[in-house]
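Reproducibility note. Readers wishing to regenerate the assembly model reported in the main text can use the exact inputs given here. Chain order matters: entities are listed in the order in which they were concatenated for prediction.
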Amino acid sequence: MTSTVKVQITVNGQPTSADVEPRLLLAHYVRDVVGIKATNIGCDTTSCGACTVLLDGESVKSCTVLAVQADQQEVTTMEGLSPSPDELHPVAAAFRQEHGLQCGFCTPGMVMATVSLLAENPHPTEREVRENLEGNLCRCTGYHNIVRAVLAAAEAQGGDS
Amino acid sequence: MIPVGFEYARPDSVDAALALLAEHGEDAVVLAGGHSLLPVMKLRLAAPELVIDIGKLAELQYVRVEGEEIAIGAGTRHRTLEASEVLAAECPLLAAVAHSVGDPQVRHRGTLGGSLAHADPASDLPAGVLALGGTVVLRSPRGERRVPVTEFYTGVFSTVKEPDELVVEVRVPRTGTAGWAYEKFTRRASTGPSSRWPWSTAGSGSSTWGRPRCGPGRPRPRSRAAPRSRRPRRSPTGTPSPPRTSRGPRSTVATSPGCSPGGR
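Running the prediction on these inputs yields the following structure tokens for the assembly.
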């Protein structure tokens, strides 16, 4: 039995703390320790992007980050994005408006990857959108509407950049 | 997939990390971004007793010009490399190679030193640093040594780094506006044997600092004028056939302005 490590991670603005095994993945910390389930685990091999969350504002695949690596940092998941169901984050609103989802499994990862992309590049071209979402797979193959949603979100956020 | 249990240490300095490495030797592994190490630990191909996390050591994260070279801290993340104004002006090949790694999520976590030390022949950055004729700086409690990257690799997933040594810095020449090209070929699914792993090649038009190179553990391209994989061969019908070294479609082509890869 290995010893546990105390971590303090701010999740969606709320401080959380737990004694965890060092091998605990951030995806499992968010889902099983904190208990919020929007972050999906798809391939578990850093390929599909379904588990994408923001770590200090940058997109990461939480199946390939240890919870101990996120100690003293801020994690944002899909739950922390929109103020309320009636007041969606611009990216979430754009995904709904443009029908950027089908089964919805990849959607939380797609949305978080998009938030990170638009933070780094507020006005991406369509090609840049496609290139920057290469780490997120949609098994429904609904990419056209996803790309449209990202471009719509960029336009909606245009005033802020 | 969950790794085998391990002890975890997050030293607050390089010296503290080196002391841990010296104490635990081959029972310990160094964790930086984790995007090479954690997948093999999840597959249980690696089961270290101690993981030493250097991912938050700011003293290993920098990109700066030093004389005729650029010194890059081993903990510098791929995303920092691809966005670096220093590299854009002084060594654009390395920025382009960093940009071609994985996807944004991977580039937010992966580090230059980690990628070089892992010595995966399918990795981008070793091929880039090999083409540039860079230098790997290793440090241990016994001191520091600089190893030309051409002598750093002893084979696939294998380097001259001793168990108590840490990659602390990577040095590449200032290439400025010299021409360059970088190509890689995707691995075709289910091709198994290592002989079919992809080639990563990078080359430069300048003979003073760089030569076409492949990734760790791969033979040097036959021609020093251009990587063999860049020369299209002609089939009897006269249409270019895929290069012999390619086992799949070319996935990335990045070149400096005016440099046409493969003569096409």
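We highlight two features of this model. Chain A has two domains: 5-80, 90-160. The two ends of chain A are 50 Å apart (CA to CA).
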